[in-house]
Amino acid sequence: MGSKLDPKMLIRNYVSSFRAGESLTKPALSLQRSGRRKGEEVIRIFLNLEICAMKEILERLWAELGDVGLVAVSKTHSAEVIEQAYVAGQRTFGENRVQELVAKYEALPKDIEWHFIGHLQTNKVKYIVPFVELIQGVDSERLLEEIERQGERIGRRVKVLLEVHVAREETKSGWEVDKLMLYINGGKWRSFRWIEFCGLMTIASNTDDEAIVRGDFQRAQNIFERIRSEIPEFKILSMGMTGDYRIAIDCGSTMVRIGSAIFGQR
To answer: Does 175 lie in the same domain as 136?
Structure first.
């Protein structure tokens, strides 16, 4: 006996081949023989199913998060997949590569709020400053200075989060705590006219030990409160991803960055 066909995989195979004009597998070929109109109907059904599934996932997350902001981490996912989440109601997405972000910005609806969540090189700031809603990973004074220059060049204030390093891994980016507090207390940030300091961002240690993760988030929350006494505009504490966002919320996170729980594993 032949193996049982997965209907969803059959339709996915058909949709992919139908759009690309490639050779079809035998199961998909039987669908194509019914004509192009039938093929287009299958595509519509498939997309509606995908959007409904995406909406169900997002609605569960929105209900759980309440007032906590949700950034759907869409890096490496296609514009078509992001559009499904958009149709389902999500409006804030996170990307970590400038070229990919610019391409998606140009291809997708303009009311999407794009967050840049990766390490940003100074020579690429100019490409995203015209449209990015929030730069989450600002990890150096040099990067701040370049954002200020580019913001002034186009006459647009740029919202940023300062990234603080609290994880145990040395490979994680971000300001060291002592250096960040020295910078804040020194007051040089006050001279920036084209930057809006909105809050703090961090990534916890990559470990299954919840006590360590909780400790990282609690430390970031304490730093956030210390800085907020100097910068009243500090409102956002962005911490927590798919594997640890519930712990982050317990520790005071006001924004989480979730990818695989929405889009699946890449």
So the answer is: yes
H-type alpha helices, the chain: 7-20, 26-32, 36-65, 79-87, 98-107, 125-128, 141-154, 177-186, 210-228, 245-250, 260-263
Output the pTM of the full model.
0.83
DSSP class per residue in 204-220: --SSS-HHHHHHHHHHH
Report the Cα 244 to chain-centroid distance in Å.
15
In which domain, by residue range, is 71 found? 67-263
Which among 116, 190, 123, 191 is positioned nearest to 160, based on CA atoms?
Answer: 116
Single out the residue of 93, 99, 50, 56 nearest to residue 71, CA to CA: 93
> Does 58 fall in a domain?
no
Going by their DSSP bridges, the two strands 113-116 and 69-73 should be labelled as unpaired
Which residues of the chain register pLDDT less than 70?
A: 1-47, 266
User: Which element (helix H / strand E) includes 234?
Assistant: none
Closest by CA to 216, choosing from 184, 191, 241, 186, is: 241
